Amino acid sequence: MPTESLLLEIALPVPLARDFSYRFTPDGSEAVPPVVGDLVVVPFGRRRRVIGLVVSVQPLAPGVTTVDGVALKDVAEILDPAYRLGPVRMDVARWMADYYALPLGEVAPLFHPPAPGTRARPRRSRTERAYPDLDPADIRPTPQQKLPIDRAVRLLSQREYGAILLHGVTGSGKTEVYLAVIAAALARGLGAIYLLPEIALTPQTLARIKARFGDEVAAIHSGLSAGERCRVHEGAARGEIKVVVGPRSALFAPVRELGVIVVDEEHDSSYKQDEKPRYHARHVALVRGRSCGAVVILGSATPDLETVVGAREGRFDLCSLPERQGAGLPGVQVVDMRGTTVREGFTDELLTAMASQLEAGRQSLLFYNRRGFARVMQCSDCGEAVTCPNCDIAMTLHLRPRRLLCHYCGHTQPAGQSCPDCGSNAFLPSGGGTEKVELNLLAQFPSARIMRLDHDTTRRRGSYHRILTAFANHEADILVGTQMVAKGHHFPQVGLVGVLAADDGLAMPDFRASERTFQLLTQVAGRAGRTGPGSVIFQTWRPEDPVILAAAAHDPERFLALELPVREALGYPPYRRLARIGLLGRRMAATREAAEALAEALRAQLPSRSMQILGPAPGVFERLQDRYRFQILLKGDLTRKQKSWTAQCLRELKAAYKGLDAYLDIDPVAVF
Ligand code: ADP
Ligand code: ZN
Ligand code: ZN
Fold it and tell me: What is the per-residue pLDDT for 29?
């Protein structure tokens, strides 16, 4: 048993770029000395207690009680070894700290479940029904599925890193490939992590995975309480749970002998964490896979352009599943909204198609990526629209209850009857949202059963899954929704998908607007005709837009041929890296001044030949949640040294400007 005191260097979750010294004093027979990678509870400041990560352990010479003149405090508690970061997860944490220019102590909370800031929520009871599908024993992989499976299994047998891009159209059998590879890993005594966007983690998906792997699988999702998260974590660390399924946070689970990491819907922007600590789970999955010799499978019907280029450059092994299992891809009709009668947002083509689905007893899915009833309340006399007092952007009218709501900060106010600017009574809703679409549908099809899936109908716990399950069980004829309806769901009875405004989103001030629109249209079109015939209608004001036409043709190559040259010419990812600095402050002038000072310092420091510095520019929404927003874009590859120099600049800036928040976002996914 140790009798000696130890000097520990500990990374703490505080925004300081250094570690902190603590002492460990053995206090009896039970004392097991801490090792590097252990998580410990330490006192911090006057009365805070925080969880820190041990990064070094040395003997402490007898009689030493201070370091650099500061009295050493004792570690309060060492967490169970189930929470220790082993060498691989420690490597990953260090890589993240370097690559994203974050203090290690701010990265460490990702690796343990009771992370500060995660609120414990009550347990959601869910009924898991058997996946209404083929018996796995009846599924023989097709030759196209066998290729990626064999490649992955070869790597597994050699315990070697390798990354596979599985580019398969919707319904082509990607999930079957993942499940086969995970089964092969389990058969070799290896574990797996299976990532999917939270929105795709439905009871159906989970039931399908559990049907294969039983008790060896556990899911992590936002409905778990802190205690339940801990149980999954401990089970994985002890080797009882061999497959962990979940959204990006599941990537950090301590799965033992990790053999495979699946990143399903790898293009999905939810893999990017857009708050502190900012990271991209797809990238980190590759790093973890490399560091422990695991196979990483990136799967999508619409891979991210960075992944596509990675495959072309030989970093990923491309395997394609160009055909659907059993059925063909649905035909897409592009309907020009100009020059036809558009009744309450519906063209005749769409109304006729919906009517025939109803008649045939099949379902329709309508996609409109705006919530609410009307986009804005606008005065027909003076033209003013009601804007949010915090954000300077138009507020959206909602009906039940009737109120105006700001979609950026959540501010609400009553929707008055007359114009607040000129007093005119010609103060009317204009534009539309899903809520209005639902009402208009009721008027068109009074006997149809209609459901709506959007942010507003899924506020209550469990309602998202309830609506999806009810629709999958054909308890409604029509489902209207925002992009929530587009993602990965399997609705066998849907014969028609209607997109009310296919060009929506193309005008977003973001260089990825075309990519996002193409992905979304492809995904939503893929919901039609999963079993039996299917058709898709894209209503649009821009019927000749090449992005819309490429999606309508289910032709990703055509889209790539359009988009990649543009990215290359403009020096955007995937050809050059991007970093973004966000600055937020309550006072406009001070925030702008700080942003300008920073841009000037960056221009002086960073080499102008390899690095382009854009800005500062005000955010597209210049003021959100009562804070003014500016951004600086850095185009080009930042070295590790340049990143840490930039991070240091931001810390100094925050110290100089009271109330200013500033952050560095490496590889941002949204730029505005
Ligand atoms: P994806 O993940 O690409 O959307 P899935 O793996 O969900 O596709 O497969 C779509 C449907 O085809 C599912 O019902 C699945 O059970 C079935 N399927 C997949 N592979 C095969 C196969 N080799 N033989 C028979 N059915 C299959
Ligand atoms: Zn007015
Ligand atoms: Zn607002």
Answer: 60
